C-alpha cells in the first residue's frame, strides 16, 4: 500500500501525515505527548466504542484544505476522522481546556473518591485524568449516588458506584461472547451496568472486561485487596493455551503471582499478541494460573505512563479545601492527593519520588 | 380566519373512517403523485414548498430528502417520528387522533418520493389508543388499494408498520429512535454517519415528524409554489401550535404564521387571553427545550418590533433576547407562576430523561436539578446561580445529542431573563416559600437601544 494517499493534519501546530479514515485521536497518538487528548471511553480494539465520555473534545479550527471553515462545536476526537489540511487545537485551545476541566468535574461528581480502598488505584485512568486535567476541589455539595456491590460470578466484582459508564465492558462482552447478558439498565445518572438478574458471566473471555475498565468498577475478585498495584512487579510471561494467545503480564511479589492481566500498550489498551490479533486472554489464564510454574517468564514489563510506579506527581500536591465529609455522610476520604502518605497498605517511609527508577516490590520488601 | 390545511376537515363527522375521508377528497395526492409524477418530481415539489421540519429543528424537508443516499440494491426507509414527548407539545397526537388518514396519505406519498417500501411509524408508548386508530387506518388503506403491492398500478410497493415506544423521551431523537426501532437500547448514535447514509439497519433513512409528513398532502395537492405563498419569508405553510398553561382556551391551533404572538394569546380565535384576567408573565413558545421569554420580550423583539408566530420572528435576537419556534409547544405562564420552580420542574424532566451516555448531560442534568430544588426551597446560595450558569455552559454543545442543549437552554434563559427572581429566592428564603415574586417588571416596556 505504498501508493496510499496520506492526509496532512496539524494538531497543536505539529503536522503529521495519516491515511484516510484515521481519527484525530489516532493522529494525535502518532504525535504523542501532551498533544494527545485523554480518552476514557474510546478503545481502539472495541468496535463502536468512543464518543461518550467527552474528555477527548478538541477544537477544529480549520475543517480541511477544501473547506477551511472551522467546526462550530468542539468535536470528540476519537470519533472524528481527519480531512486533508485539517487544523486541530487541543492544549492550545482555552475552550478545549475549559470544557475538559468541566468534563472531569462531571465525571468525578458522583465518583466515590475511594482510591485508598480501590484495587485500581495506581493504574486508574480517572485518577490520571483528574491529576492532569482537572481542577482542585469539587463544587458538588450533594450526596453522591451509590450502588450496592454486585458479584458477577466467581471472578468479577462490579462496584457500580465507581463506574463512569464508558460502555467498554459492554462492547467487550458483546464482541467477545456469543450471548449478550451484560449491558446497561436504566438511564441518565441512574443508569447502571448490569447483567440480567445478576447472572454469572460464564463466558470464557469475560474476564477481559476487567482490563478494559478504566476505573475500579470491575475488579478481579482473585486479587481483591491482596496487594497494591505499585508493590507488585509486572513481568511478561506466556504459556501454551488452546483458548487464547496465552501471552500475559504477571504481577509478582517475590515468587508469588498476585494477578494475571493482558498486556497493555502505552494508551492502556490491550496489545496485539504475536499472532497479530488483539491479545485478549481467557479466564483460565487470568484467574486460575497463579503458580509461577504455570508460566514461562520472558522478562520485566516496561512500566508505562499509566503506572503510578513511574510517576512522582502524587507527591507534594496541596490537598484541596473540601466539602467531602459533608457529601460523604461524614466520612472523610483517606486519599485525595497524596496516596503515599495516607494509604494504609503503603510504607510511607519509602518516598517513591526519590527513587531514581521505577519502584519495584523489592524496594518494599527490604 | 387563517388558512387551514391540516385540520380544515378534522371535525367533519366520521373523518377518522376511510369512507368519509375519501369522500372529502382524501388520497387525491397519492393518485396525483403515483400517476402523474416521478419520485424526483415529488421531492422537487416539497423543496419548492419551503416546508421546514415540524419536529423541532426546522430543517427544510425537501433538502433533507434530497440528501438520502441511493446505493444500488440497498432498501431505503422512511420513519415517521410520532414519539412526541416534549413537555407542552401535543399537536401530533391531535392530528393522529382526529384525522389519521391524513398522516397515512402523507406517508404513502413521501415513501414514494424516497423509495421506501417499508415505512415505520414510531409512536410514543403512552399513546396506546392511537396505535389502534392508526392500525385501523392502515388496514383501511390496504383494503382500498392505497398500500400493498403495485399501488395504483404504478409498480410501487409500500407497507406501513406501527411500532410503539416504551416511554423514553430520548427515543424522539432520531438516531435513538432508530436504535429503539431496531430493538436496542434507545441511545442516540454518534454522528456521522447520518441517517440519510446509514440509518435503520444501516440503510439510508429519513426521519420526519408527523406534522411534516402530513403537510406533504396539501403540498402535492396544491403544488409547492402555492403552498409557499402561505405564510411569510422562510416560514411557509401552516403550523400546528399546541397551546397550554394559564390561558382560557388551551388546545391545538393551526396558524398560517402571519399572526402576532399577541394576537395568538389574546384573540378569541386562539388562546382567548390569560385565565382569570391575570397578567402575562412569561412564555415558552416552542416546547420545553426552547428558551423562556419574559412578557416584554415575547410580544416585542429587542428592537421594539412586533413579534410574530413564525420561525424567523420567534428567533429574532438569538438566544440573548429571542427564542425558537421549536415543536410548537406554546406554554403560557401568568403572574402567579414562579420561574424558579418552573425551571426546576424542567430540569427534573431532563435529568430523568437523559440517556446517560455522555458525562456532561448525565451528570450535569442531575446537578442542575439538585441546585434548582435547593433554590426553590429557599436553601440556595447566591453562588448557586452562577454555578448553574456554569454547569449549563459546560453541557451545551459538548454532548452527543441535542438533549444536552435542550436541558441547558431553559436554565440559561431563566437565569438570563429572571435573575432577580432567583436572587430574591436566596435573599428572602422564607418569603419565597409563602408567596411568589409576581409579575415584577417582566412586562415593562423595554428601552429600545438607539440605532437598533
Ligand atoms: C431529545 C430529543 C427529542 C426529540 N423528540 C422528538 C419528537 O418527539 N418528535 C419529533 O418529531 N421530533 C423529535 N425530535 C427531533 C428529531 O430528532 C428529528 O429532528 C425530527 O424528527 C426530524 O423531523 P422533521 O425534520 O420533520 O422535523 C427530538 C429531538 C431530540 C434531541
Ligand atoms: S464498569 Fe468499567 S468498563 Fe464498564 S462502563 Fe463502567 S467504567 Fe466502563
Ligand atoms: S446528550 Fe444526554 S441524552 Fe443525548 S446522548 Fe448525551 S447523555 Fe444521552
Ligand atoms: S474518548 Fe472520545 S469521547 Fe470518550
Automatic annotation (TrEMBL), chain A:
Keyword Ion transport: no
Classification via SMART domains: NADH-G_4Fe-4S_3
Listed GO MF terms: 2 iron, 2 sulfur cluster binding; 4 iron, 4 sulfur cluster binding; metal ion binding; oxidoreductase activity
Keywords: 2Fe-2S, 4Fe-4S, Iron, Iron-sulfur, Membrane, Metal-binding, NAD, Translocase
Organism of this sequence: Hydrotalea sandarakina
Alphabetized InterPro entries for the sequence: 2Fe-2S_ferredoxin-like_sf, 2Fe-2S_ferredoxin-type, NADH_UbQ_OxRdtase_ferredoxin, NADH_UbQ_OxRdtase_Gsu_4Fe4S-bd, Prok_molybdopt-oxidoreductase
Keyword Hydrolase listed: no
Record domain 2Fe-2S ferredoxin-type: where: 7-94
Origin superkingdom: Bacteria
Gene Ontology CC: membrane
Family note: Belongs to the complex I 75 kDa subunit family.
One Pfam family this sequence matches: NADH-G_4Fe-4S_3
Name of protein: NADH-quinone oxidoreductase subunit G
Record localization: Membrane
Listed cofactors: [2Fe-2S] cluster; [4Fe-4S] cluster
Domain 4Fe-4S His(Cys)3-ligated-type, first and last residues per copy: 95-134
TrEMBL record, chain B:
Known role: NDH-1 shuttles electrons from NADH, via FMN and iron-sulfur (Fe-S) centers, to quinones in the respiratory chain.
Homology family: Belongs to the complex I 51 kDa subunit family.
Cofactor: [4Fe-4S] cluster; FMN
Occurrences of domain NADH-ubiquinone oxidoreductase 51kDa subunit iron-sulphur binding (ranges): 340-385
NCBIfam families: nuoF_fam, PRK13596.1
Database matches in InterPro entries: NADH-UbQ_OxRdtase_51kDa_CS, NADH-UbQ_OxRdtase_suF, Nuo51_FMN-bd, Nuo51_FMN-bd_sf, Nuop51_4Fe4S-bd, Nuop51_4Fe4S-bd_sf
Catalytic reaction(s) noted: a quinone + NADH + 5 H(+)(in) = a quinol + NAD(+) + 4 H(+)(out)
Pfam families, alphabetized: Complex1_51K (PF01512), NADH_4Fe-4S (PF10589)
EC number: 7.1.1.-
Keywords: 4Fe-4S, Flavoprotein, FMN, Iron, Iron-sulfur, Metal-binding, NAD, Quinone, Translocase
SMART domains from the UniProt entry: NADH_4Fe-4S (SM00928)
Name recorded for this polypeptide: NADH-quinone oxidoreductase subunit F
Species name: Hydrotalea sandarakina
Domain of life, per lineage: Bacteria
GO terms, molecular function: 4 iron, 4 sulfur cluster binding; FMN binding; metal ion binding; NAD binding; NADH dehydrogenase (ubiquinone) activity; quinone binding
Keyword Iron included in the entry's annotation: yes
